[in-house]
User: Fold this.
Amino acid sequence: MATKVTTGVLPADEAYASKMPTRLSWGAIFAGVVIAVAVQLVLGILGAGIGLTMVDPVQGTTPGAAGFGIGAGIFWLITTVLALGAGGYAAARVAGVYERFDALVHGLVVWGVTLILTLYLLTSAVGGIIGGAFRTVGSVAGAAGSTVGAAAPAAASVAGIDPSDVRSEAAAYLSDAPSDPAQMTSEQAQKEIAKELPTLARGGVEGEQAESRIVDIVAAQRKISRAEAQAQVTRAKRQFVRTKDQAVATAKSATDKAAGAAAGTSFVLVLALLVGAGAAGFGATAATRRKLR
Assistant:
């Protein structure tokens, strides 16, 4: 009678059969990401074409900014759902998963990789292009400034003007106005008042001195008494303060509206991202149900 000896080691075929398959296929995920990005790109170009066909400045039928923005947002949401749904479906189908949870994970990973890739492209490629453009403009401006600085003496020499005379004339333009308001020209008086206005707005002792200086200039230029000039400056000061308060109120209101709009946009964006994740997961689980059939 033959005796069967068990060595405790499974045969090669049985060992491979009992081995658990890999539950996450990065190749399938990469394929799903490529499909999602491609579908999103194609549909985005299609949406841009549709939007451009609606612009008709000649007939005056161009949609408003609000309606156009809402339509673009809805179209972007629809394209995101379609693209991520297709990507999740493809990833789960190619991976050949048998568990719905595994398919859901594949779909969510496709969504996450697509989101990270999109953010990377927006922050690196576009940012690099914009940064390079600004650096180019800065280099051109610097070169232009150097060229003008080098060419100025030569141009003055060709015109028969002594460079020292040019510097003297420039110094005259930058010199302070006469201390006596009666000796100032109209242009000098305006520049002097403009120079004193920031100090006047700050208030305090320096503000009172600036106001007194402005009153002297107004009285001398208009040839009126100092009391009349003081009354005019006081009225102008009240109007200036009123205008400044209105500007501050307008800025606060605009800031509040901008903050509200930014908050609303953030909530909508989060909702759109969650919808995209749901679309990717649904597409992946749909592929699994079809696989089980």
The helical segments are 12-18, 26-53, 65-95, 100-158, 163-174, 186-202, 204-222, 226-292. Residues 226-292 form the longest helix (67 residues).
